[in-house]
Amino acid sequence: MPAPSTTRGGDLLPAAILGLLGSRGSSSRADIARLLRVSPAAVTQATKSLIARGLVAELEAEPSRGGRPARLLGLVSDAASAIGVKVTADHVATVRVTLDGLVRAYSTRAFDPSVPDALDRLGRLLAEAVAAHEGTLLGVGVGVPGSVDSQASGVVTAPTLGWAELPVGAHLRAELGVPVLLDNDVNTLAAAERLYGVGQDAASYVVVTIGRGIGCGVVVDGSIYRGARGGAGEIGHIPVADGPDCACGGTGCLEALIGEEALVRRAREEGLIGPAQGIAELTGAADEGVPGAAEVFATAGRLLGRALAGVVHTIDPGVVVIQGEGVTAWRHWQSPFETSFRRHLMPSRRSLRYQVHAWSEQQWTLGAASLVLAAPFDSADTAGEQGRLVRARLQDPEGGA
Ligand SMILES: [Zn+2]
């Protein structure tokens, strides 16, 4: 875990302690000092004020290893929470997550992003969620299926939502009156991994999503790599063949070959499923051993393995995470993927670990909430003023920001 910066955005130490307790669980002061690479005296000073503010409490003593038993510190779970939001082409999902990563409420509402006043409607919908929130709200994290130029500005371009250069961040901040952090939806999953998953041990990793879209969140040295316009990680649009046409305007993109729509189209053409049936029926057909059905996923697995080998050679991640709604059929992708991935990797990279995570739609919103809950670790100040406002609220829940 990177050390908190004290040079930018004020003193990050109290917020970093809260973030550490949230992601690692209860810890002794000595462990906190070691993990954050700061002096024990600084930790003692910072935790004193956190305890006084009701954010942190002393728990039972850790088993003694000879000396005086160390008191464990833990978060007061309900002291503060974040709202995570995922915007899709037909609905908005929201979740409330406490400081220690526990889900308290999850709901979805119908939403049409293509109407002229979509942004106003989204603002009103989220204002209701903020108004219904009890206790200290640190901020609202929003994941969108598109590019966000920077977390600090929050200008969104998302073709699947029909949004081009839309000032979503500024609009929502004005409407909601709380910090609002935005990012590409796959990047939000990478942020969640940083807090609760592989990012605790690996400084560089990639999170690949399969399903309706094929995406990738790239984390390099502890920070999400965004690119010049926030569009990094669009591995779904790596051209891997001469056809078919892709929704992006290109041709032969990975997503046009192994995205959910492509798999369903092929299965319909081959008569494996009916003309009105979809991915669930195709998965069912493969499960039942219908000839040809498993091969649709196998082809996708082989192509994914080949493309990911190229990504690995470019990024050199410590671990690869595979997520997304498509993993519900992973048993049919797995073996062809494994063979293809290993075969296309350079010998020195061939033993690279990858993890496939069980999926639920809630993951998108948890990722979005992680944008807010990760603010204590934002030593690079990527979220700018919004991140500093979240940290200010953490340190002074009564005063807010
Ligand atoms: Zn494309």
Largest sheet: 5 strands, mixed
DSSP strand count: 16
- Terminal residue distance: 27 Å
Summarize the helix and strand pattern as letters.
HEHHEEEEEHEEEEHEHEEEHHHHEHEHH
Subunit organisation of the chains: single chain
Proportion of helical residues:
25-40%
Sheet/helix structural class: alpha/beta
Query: In percent, how much strand structure appears in the residues?
Result: 15-25%
Q: In DSSP terms, counting alpha (H) and pi (I) runs of 4 or more, how many helices?
A: 13
Q: Radius of gyration from the CA trace?
A: 22 Å
Ligands and ions found: zinc ion
- Poorly predicted regions are 1-10
**Strand line-up across the major sheet:** 6-5-4-7-11
Question: Could you please describe the fold and organization of this structure?
Answer:
The protein is α/β, with parallel strands linked by helices and 401 residues long. The chain contains 13 helices and 16 strands. The strands form four sheets. It has a five-stranded mixed beta sheet. Strands 14-13-12-15-16 form a five-stranded mixed beta sheet, covered by helices on one side. Strand 9 and strand 10 (163-166) form a beta hairpin. Helix 4 (118-131) packs parallel to helix 5 (168-176).
